[in-house]
Amino acid sequence: MSLRNPYGDFEITDPQAMRALAHPVRLAALSYLQKNGPATATQLSVHVDASPSVTSWHLRHLESFGLVSDSPPPEGGADKRQRWWKAVARGFRFQMPETAEGLEAGRLLRTEMMSQALNHAQQWIAETEPVLDPRWSRATGSSNTLLTITLAEAEALENAIEQLLAPYVQRGTAGAPDDAQPVRMIRMALPEATN
Fold this sequence. Notes:
The protein is mainly alpha-helical. The protein has a domain at 10-133: Arc Repressor Mutant, subunit A, CATH 1.10.10. It has helices at residues 15-21, 24-36, 41-48, 52-64, 100-128, 134-140, 151-171; strands at 10-12, 39-40, 68-71, 84-87, 92-94. It has a three-stranded antiparallel sheet with strand order 2-4-3. It has a two-stranded parallel sheet with strand order 1-5. It starts with 9 loop residues before the first strand and ends in a 24-residue tail after the last helix. The mean pLDDT is 90.
């Protein structure tokens, strides 16, 4: 795996794929599949606020860009007539393209990603944090820090963070200790405009 992709994430380079994933239903469907594993359009529809037929259409659109694919049904007598979907990778990433079309598509995707991340954080504050073991709240922390760094330092910092997290991402739940629990890490580096 490359230094810039130590998790083995799906790398999106096509502006059309970025634009497609920037749709709230598609991004929510992919996020659900990445977190929870294979599901049908009917199962997903509850989580993405769309009908099963609309969800199915969005999944086929994601499939056309290679982000999702068919999955065998789970064992235990599942209806084999249902189409099961899975994410092709546990995560995805993209860099802002250099073309005008690409920049617009990248901004749309980044905007939707941040919107969903903020919604997730608000839901966590309302539903999870009040019942969370206080030791987890103290251990994981929160911060809002302003750095003054060069472009090269920003790239080095991003690479160092990814290398630090990579072993925990790569082992997944199967390789985690018995007392481990899922922790969503939302990172947003927001370079400020210079005067």
